[in-house]
Fold this sequence. Notes:
Two copies of one chain form a homodimer. By secondary structure, chain A is mostly helical. Chain A contains six helices and three strands. The first copy, chain A, has helices at about 10-35, 40-50, 60-65, 70-85, 105-125, 130-150; strands at about 55-60, 85-90, 100-105. Chain A has a three-stranded antiparallel sheet. In chain A, helix 1 (about 10-35) packs antiparallel against helix 5 (about 105-125) and helix 2 packs across helix 5 (about 105-125). The first copy, chain A, is globular and about 55 Å long. The interface between A and B is large, with 76 and 71 residues.
Amino acid sequence: MGEPRWLTPEEAAVWKKYRTLRRELHLAQDRQLARDSGLSGADYALLAPLSESPEGVLRFRELALEVGWERSRLSHQLTRMEKRGLVTREACPGDARGAMIRLTRHGRDAIEAAAPQHVEAVRRLFFDPLTPGEMRVLEGFLDRMLAALEGESAAHPPNTSAGKAARPGFRPG
Amino acid sequence: MGEPRWLTPEEAAVWKKYRTLRRELHLAQDRQLARDSGLSGADYALLAPLSESPEGVLRFRELALEVGWERSRLSHQLTRMEKRGLVTREACPGDARGAMIRLTRHGRDAIEAAAPQHVEAVRRLFFDPLTPGEMRVLEGFLDRMLAALEGESAAHPPNTSAGKAARPGFRPG
DNA sequence: CTCCGTTATGTGACATGACAACAATAAGGT
DNA sequence: ACCTTATTGTTGTCATGTCACATAACGGAG
């Protein structure tokens, strides 16, 4: 092993800014959601795809694929949300192992009340500072970085991006 | 308040990719560190600035400023690291409130063993997929997004609305 | 010097999330 | 049918991180 390819000062600065942005943006959005609607970012991430599904119901497996979470994380989060009356679990017809996750009336009310202000926050903090040209550049290296990640741990997390095309709409979290 | 500025399909796709990248990159790096050196990302984040300071000592306040963490988070993490023998706490000369955080021998060994492989991972996953031009573009909007975040804590009206929301995910037009 | 607002750090309670081990069911080969 | 393997979810455990609050010491105004 030779000398590692240390970061240049410029690279170190960018890396530090990236990590700061990641932390602060995440925090700002969680706070905005909690303050304006009493939901956590995790709640919103799950309520959004559920609210977009035809009947407000998704199979556990489908929801996991949609949000790209590990199963245990999803299961824990659903347990917490079930306790708060946001979703319910039902048996899955045709597969006794499966679980259907259903949005409750309360859950739908919550996401619908939360969405406008949350979208506004995403715009203000993320898209408004971007020019259209920059957004394309951004998408380009998001794609390349995600591709680089695929090779990293071959069998670990469920891969969300490569599957179906994104539906028109909004799924923050 | 009128209709929210919902995300376009392109924006929604970029936003989803960004969140996926944030999650997967963070996870990949934590795993790389844990596997190769037994340190967590939080450990590394604190050991790095400590190891770069002249004596391997920083005042709590300086360390907090350096990494940008909340005080309580830093305090908790230092307690855990102290238990594992990575750092020690000492009194601060000249200010009885202060705490000096000192890297132990074990802590220095750990960060020095971890650094080469970690830097290599950062390169592979973050910088290698970027062209030099893209890196400058990236830095530009990192700066602008960070600036947008600064204004956030100041002005934000409490949740006055509860007005009826459009279906989350439904994009008008 | 005393009062008092500010600054510096610590703590407890709780939500979140990763990992590994488990239970149950489905699927597939022989 | 039988045995083996893969899929689906769930759970325990532990590290992390946030919030609200507690504590102590500094520093300036009177």
